[in-house]
Write a structure and sequence with these properties.
heterodimer; A: 336 residues; mainly alpha; two-stranded antiparallel sheet; two-stranded antiparallel ribbon; 16 helices; B: 282 residues; ABC transporter involved in vitamin B12 uptake, BtuC; 11 helices; 73% helix; globular
């Protein structure tokens, strides 16, 4: 942060521009109003949506920063959730334990990133699918540790991070907590993209060979991006375990990885917040469709096809078009 | 011991037929078909329904015909339109196809398990090394060998096979020499889908039918492709055979760990050779 050019680039970051701050304030106000007036069911839906948004954010971050499509992010999510359940069961100090779990997820995926760093594109996607399924099978089979298919109860301690443990299990409490975490992560990613490392990561995404030619080592950076993305998914898993009070192998099944990916695609990767918008759209679309028809899987599949084929930018592209209309600028400039 | 090895051969040859469908489509279209497992499942269910009423052979024919239609449609409607887009976009579309097909199977056949008996002609056992071994499992190996062998002969010795190999090797150069990828597309994708569908119905009396069979086999055939090296038939063959043996012996000697072994094997291979056994260097 000592480098003056870097502070300059921080100021460039859209999140610190007035518009970004206004959006943040609006979201905060909306969450506040909701906690005061919303019904328990609505609040619970939004709390779950906020937790899943963090998951979608992690998948989107990886796609946006490294152009890697993960079909296996249920693994770090589930590791975060199961890790939380296990530290509570074994009486490890909760705050320290959760940090250790996240650190372990980071370390694991960092090593994995070093090993598979050479794989790109489809090979990487296939690998993540297989690895994700590895963790699913492992959690289902290691009954002595995870109770297998029966799942585990998460006994949240009476006090956690200075808040009463109950707060994490009530809809309004979790909605606020998850929204704050989500906002903090979105801001952190925006700021990261303005740093030198963030730009280097973008460079690697665009053309790794050139970045190598410039004398940078890209291997560690790619591994770190993968590990960071996995850790964000882990955070989502921790919150999920705290809120639900129960974890079972289903959360590590590949269909969950697939859903997270659909959210990220629906949102588009033109903006950091895209996956969050995609997750909200997906979550409420699913609620609505599953009330409407039992074939919501088909409808979802059809929507996924339509969006990827006809409208690759997702929600973020739509937002850019709308903003361009509102401000009267041409579409090309609006993205700046 | 010998029976274990034979069981591994049965499983490995099924995996190879599936993986070779993936490799064939990947070669021409540079797309990994995430709906491949769903094709396998659809073939098994359609074949099952026809076989119950009309016999096993018509079941196989019905599965092949239905899946050829699905594959041709997939190529005409999706792959051809998206040929000049990022392959990952097409991969996501196949994921959407997977969701739709799984829902279709659940709707038509429900979520229960189905079992089907092998045809009477193949239902007995033979004595191998003093132990009884179902004849049907040997038929699976034979059928897989015929399918894989037929495909290799087609690719190697026919004119259209030559075109497919050329287009897989270098689409641009092949196109300049007059190979029309868009004409080959429906043929290749239809054939790949039919391989999956026939594998499904052929495997049905050996495994059982349930709505998660597609996902399980998809993950394993990905493991085969990644271990063998993406786009390599030889690599897929070697890794399918190894994986079949690992599964067969794993179930006997490490029953708790058997389901994890393919992934451990994959991790080991990737540490040593990131591009897979016979993959091109990346």
């Amino acid at each position: 942060m000592a480098n003056p050019s870097m502070t300059h680039s921080f100021r460039d970051s859209p999140v610190l521009r007035p518009s970004g701050l206004i959006v943040l304030a609006l979201v905060a106000a909306l969450v506040a109003i909701m906690t005061m007036t919303g019904s328990r069911i609505t609040l619970s839906l939004f709390a779950q949506a906020a937790i899943i948004s963090i998951m979608a954010l992690s998948v989107g971050f990886l796609a946006r920063t490294a152009d890697l499509i993960s079909f296996g992010h249920a693994a770090p999510f589930g590791l975060g959730a199961y890790g939380t359940a296990l530290i509570f069961r074994h009486g490890i100090p909760a705050e320290l334990g959760i940090l250790l779990v996240l650190l372990a997820v980071f370390a694991l995926f960092f090593v994995m990133g070093l090993v598979v760093g050479k794989l790109n594109g489809i090979a990487f996607s296939m690998l993540t699918l297989a690895l994700g399924q590895f963790f699913f099978v492992a959690v289902s089979k290691l009954r002595a540790i995870t109770s297998g298919a029966d799942g585990m109860n998460v006994s949240v301690p009476s006090s956690l991070f200075g808040l009463p443990g109950r707060t994490f299990q009530t809809p309004d409490g979790m909605l606020v907590i998850a929204s704050v975490v989500l906002a903090a992560l979105v801001i952190a990613i925006y700021l990261f993209e303005a740093t030198r490392t963030g730009r280097l990561a973008m460079g690697v995404r665009e053309n790794e060979e050139r970045v190598l030619f410039l004398g940078y080592r890209t291997k560690l950076l790619k591994a770190a991006v993968l590990a960071t993305s996995a850790t964000i998914a882990g955070v989502s898993g921790v919150l999920f375990a705290l809120y639900q009070g129960f974890v079972s192998p289903e959360i590590m099944h590949w269909s969950f990885s697939g859903n997270a990916l659909i959210m990220a695609i629906l949102g588009g990767s033109l903006a950091v917040w895209g996956p969050v918008a995609g997750a909200l759209v997906f979550f409420f679309l699913r609620e609505w469709l599953s009330d409407l028809t039992e074939h919501w899987h088909s409808v979802l599949g059809a929507i996924l096809i339509a969006v990827t084929v006809a409208w690759p930018g997702g929600v973020t592209a739509l937002a850019k078009v709308v903003r361009a209309r509102l401000t009267g600028r041409k579409q090309g400039e609006a993205g700046k | 011991m010998i029976v274990n090895a034979l069981n591994g051969l049965v499983y490995g040859s099924l995996l190879f037929v599936l993986a070779s469908g993936l490799v064939l489509v990947y070669g021409l279209r540079r797309v990994v078909n995430f709906a491949h497992g769903a094709f396998y499942m659809l073939g098994a269910y359609i074949g099952y329904s026809v076989a119950v009423h009309a016999g096993f052979i018509p079941g196989i024919i019905a599965a092949a015909a239905a899946l050829i239609a699905v594959g041709v449609a997939l190529d005409l409607v999706v792959f051809r339109k998206l040929a000049d887009r990022d392959p990952l976009v097409t991969v996501l579309v196949t994921f959407g196809v997977l969701l739709i097909l799984e829902d279709f199977v659940r709707t038509v056949w429900g979520t229960g398990n189905y079992a089907i008996d092998p045809p009477a002609l193949l239902s007995g056992v033979v004595q191998i090394a003093g132990a009884p071994f179902p004849i049907y499992r040997l038929f699976i190996v034979l059928a897989s060998a015929l399918m894989a062998g037929g495909m290799v002969i087609w690719l190697r010795y026919s004119r259209s096979g030559l075109w497919v190999r050329a287009a897989s090797h270098s689409p641009a150069v092949a196109a300049m020499c007059g190979v029309r990828t868009n004409v080959l597309g429906p043929l290749v994708v239809g054939l790949g889908a039919a391989f999956a569908g026939v594998a499904g119905i052929v495997a049905a009396p050996f495994l059982s039918l349930n709505p998660s069979m597609g996902a399980e086999i998809l993950v394993l055939s990905f493991v085969v492709s990644v271990i063998g090296g993406l786009g390599s038939f030889g690599g897929a063959f070697i890794s399918a055979m190894i994986l079949g043996q690992v599964q067969a012996f794993g179930i006997v000697y490490l029953p708790e760990m058997a389901a994890l072994l393919p992934f451990l094997l994959m991790a080991l291979v990737l540490v040593a050779r990131p591009q897979g056994i016979l993959g091109k260097k990346v």
